[in-house]
């Protein structure tokens, strides 16, 4: 099943004859943005279609779905978080161009590509990571880490007092410069 792990679509036939090209597959282990790793539970699956819309323009649409581990915002536990993202982009074929280049002219946005073998991973990554929530909780009512000793209060009762809000705390939040 190695072919399914290649996140590419070959558009040679589409470029010649028009119509629609389709591909599907999986991304294993993680998505990467620079040095930042977004670890997956199992595999993320994806599928795309690229359709000729006249001239040298093509419409890319697809979806990517998987479960990513995000840290619980209170206790930092890796928490499986389902993500299902859809994406659509205009593509423009420019023969001989190396790689994929993003163009933005007025309201017109498109990606130029010059090789029939198009790498989809950047599109899949952008769609997936953009769809992730900002923060997650491992469960409703996660008790978080103790601010005194750092213990996971879901697992142990370290005996430290839960913080009682200082009466002036609300005022302090209102006027952070004080
Ligand atoms: Zn938690
Ligand atoms: Zn404690």
Automatic annotation (TrEMBL):
Protein name: Metal-binding protein
Entries under InterPro entries matching the protein: YceD
Organism for this UniProt entry: Thermus arciformis
UniProt superkingdom: Bacteria
């Amino acid at each position: 099943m190695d072919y399914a792990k290649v996140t590419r679509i070959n558009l040679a036939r589409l470029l010649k004859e028009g119509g629609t090209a389709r591909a599907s597959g999986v991304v294993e282990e993680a998505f990467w943005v620079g040095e930042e790793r977004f670890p997956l539970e199992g595999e993320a699956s994806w599928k795309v279609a690229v359709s000729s819309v006249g001239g040298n323009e093509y419409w890319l649409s697809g979806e990517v779905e998987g479960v990513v581990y995000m840290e619980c915002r209170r206790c930092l536990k890796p928490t499986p978080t389902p993500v299902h993202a859809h994406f659509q982009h205009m593509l423009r074929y420019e023969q001989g161009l190396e790689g994929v280049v993003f163009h933005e002219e007025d309201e017109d946005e498109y990606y130029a590509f010059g090789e029939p073998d198009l790498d989809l991973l950047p599109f899949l990554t952008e769609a997936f990571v953009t769809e992730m929530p900002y923060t997650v909780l491992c469960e409703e009512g996660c008790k978080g880490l103790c601010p005194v000793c750092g213990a996971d209060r879901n697992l142990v009762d370290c005996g430290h007092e839960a913080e009682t809000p200082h009466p002036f705390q609300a005022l302090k939040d209102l006027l952070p410069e004080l």
